[in-house]
């Protein structure tokens, strides 16, 4: 008596994949989904990347996806991602294995551990700006932010020194991600095949790095807190055996390279773009909003009519530092307005468009049957741009996040939610705040290309990588 959701599965294998990829590249994916909603209602079936899929959205849908355990939904990646990142990365693990490996990663990525690395992060940002921004007139923000976030990850998470080996890793890594989202066709000349080959090269380099780190750790030459790889190697069982296997370390290090570098670089790039378009907000990030007052305009949240923001923000933080003194965890805590700007940026331009889960058994959702083995497709932006949740959603307004507690759960989900919520949240927050601190205190910038276009492939990328003209404010 139960029905599967309305919609069509399209042509065999291809289904609606090409239509959606085309819409993503043309930055019309939200419209493409909205047309589905108009045609079939809030729950509909389609076929994406070779699998029957059900698209669901809204607060209840997000809650269902993020809180269902492994007996109902498992994580689901495209075949190409699985082949390139490996079958022991977190995205492929479920149940106890997922808990064990995730717990090990979080033991390094939790705020208590990361607190000590603010200075190292700052060092990377400073070197980056001196190398790529200083004395330049125009630069392209997105490729440079990718270089920066990759270097931060190499240095802080993998303990990989600057030099020939890191450069080689960057080169293999870039080849690896180029075809990662493409449809897997194992022919030597395809994008996918080049990525697969580069993935093998990255794995070979990581194997060598891990054996060096194991030697250092076992001979007391390195502390478990030195970097993520040493931390994972240091987690031992009763007989001193390693709890996280070598393959699990390699596959998860590759996942973190991808998950950690693309997302944060896009966030920082879109903040730079939005600050250039909103001079008042740029000024507030720099000077703080001590004396100004905001109206909180959320239709569905309790309205506190006027709230003084009370932040000091970047210029004052910089002025209180003596030359050469590093930023601290406490300084980051003062950058409240800057983080609201980042949240508003992720609301409007979430780096991750959405994701997939797979049903473990026949399930009932919203009055429909979703058969075992089908995919569920969830989308971040659907609640982020819903005017019943965020008043005037097209307007860039960081004041929305002044009273985070009043934001109903499962509506703002740039980092996902539940057991798979992004474990790199704090890491991303630190690198974003430190980078924006340096950018606004040392430079001003103007957009060279003022069109509003960006494509998704599947990560959003502004036209030409966002070229900007930079004007130094004070020496680095
Ligand atoms: C602005 C930056 C970032 C955004 C917007 C972001 C967003 C996300 C999202 C939406 C998910 C999927 C959640 C789900 O499926 O429910 C995710 C997962 C993940 N992210 Fe991030 N992320 C960011 C930065 C990072 C960083 C810096 C790291 C690592 C240092 C990282 C590591 C991961 C990992 C390992 C997962 C898989 C978690 C799991 O399956 O348990 N992310 N992220």
UniProtKB/TrEMBL annotation:
Membrane topology summary: Single-pass membrane protein
Family per similarity comment: Belongs to the cytochrome P450 family.
Keywords: Heme, Iron, Membrane, Metal-binding, Monooxygenase, Oxidoreductase, Signal, Transmembrane, Transmembrane helix
Protein known as: Cytochrome P450
Cross-referenced CDD domains: CYP90-like
Stored PANTHER family: CYTOCHROME P450 (PTHR24286:SF190), CYTOCHROME P450 26 (PTHR24286)
InterPro entries: Cyt_P450, Cyt_P450_CS, Cyt_P450_E_grp-I, Cyt_P450_sf
Compartments it resides in: Membrane
Cited SUPFAM superfamilies: Cytochrome P450
């Amino acid at each position: 008596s139960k029905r599967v959701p309305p919609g069509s599965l399209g042509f065999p294998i291809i289904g609606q994949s090409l239509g959606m990829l085309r819409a993503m590249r043309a930055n019309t994916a939200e419209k493409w989904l909205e047309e589905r909603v108009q045609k079939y209602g809030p729950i509909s079936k389609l076929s994406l990347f070779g699998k029957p899929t059900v698209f669901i959205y809204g607060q209840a849908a997000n809650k269902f996806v993020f809180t269902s355990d492994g007996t109902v939904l498992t994580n689901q990646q495209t075949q190409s991602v699985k082949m390139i990142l490996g079958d022991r990365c977190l995205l492929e693990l479920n149940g106890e294995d997922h808990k064990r490996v995730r717990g090990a990663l979080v033991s390094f990525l939790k705020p208590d551990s990361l607190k000590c690395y603010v200075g190292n992060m700052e060092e990377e940002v400073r070197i980056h700006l001196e190398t790529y921004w200083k004395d330049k007139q125009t630069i392209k923000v997105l490729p440079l932010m990718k270089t920066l976030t990759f270097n931060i990850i190499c240095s802080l998470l993998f303990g990989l020194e600057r030099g020939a080996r890191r450069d080689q890793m960057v080169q293999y890594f870039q080849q690896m991600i180029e075809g990662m989202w493409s449809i897997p066709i194992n022919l030597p000349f395809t994008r996918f095949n080049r990525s697969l080959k580069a993935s093998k090269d990255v794995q070979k380099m990581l194997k060598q790095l891990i054996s060096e780190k194991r030697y250092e750790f076992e001979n007391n030459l390195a502390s478990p807190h030195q970097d993520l790889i040493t931390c994972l190697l240091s987690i031992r069982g009763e007989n001193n055996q390693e709890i996280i296997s070598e393959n699990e370390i390699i596959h998860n290090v590759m996942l973190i390279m991808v998950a950690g570098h693309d997302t944060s670089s896009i966030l920082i790039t879109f903040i730079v773009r939005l600050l250039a378009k909103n001079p008042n907000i740029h000024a507030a990030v720099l000077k703080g909003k001590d004396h100004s007052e905001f109206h909180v305009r959320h239709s569905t949240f309790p309205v506190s009519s006027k709230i003084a923001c009370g932040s000091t923000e970047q210029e004052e933080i910089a002025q209180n530092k003596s030359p050469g003194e590093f930023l601290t965890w406490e300084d980051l805590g003062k950058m409240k307005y800057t983080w609201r700007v980042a949240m508003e940026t992720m609301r409007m331009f979430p780096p991750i468009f959405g994701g997939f889960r797979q049903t473990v058994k026949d399930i009932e959702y919203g009055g429909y049957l979703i058969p075992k083995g089908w995919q569920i497709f969830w989308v971040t932006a659907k609640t982020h741009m819903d005017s019943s949740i965020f008043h005037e959603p097209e307007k860039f307004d960081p004041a929305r996040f002044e009273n985070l507690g009043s934001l109903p759960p499962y509506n703002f989900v740039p980092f996902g939610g539940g057991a798979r919520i992004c474990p790199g949240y704090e890491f991303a927050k630190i690198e974003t705040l430190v980078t924006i601190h340096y950018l606004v205190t040392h430079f001003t910038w103007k957009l060279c290309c003022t069109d509003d276009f960006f494509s998704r492939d599947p990560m959003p990328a502004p036209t030409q990588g966002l070229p900007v003209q930079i004007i130094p404010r004070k020496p680095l």
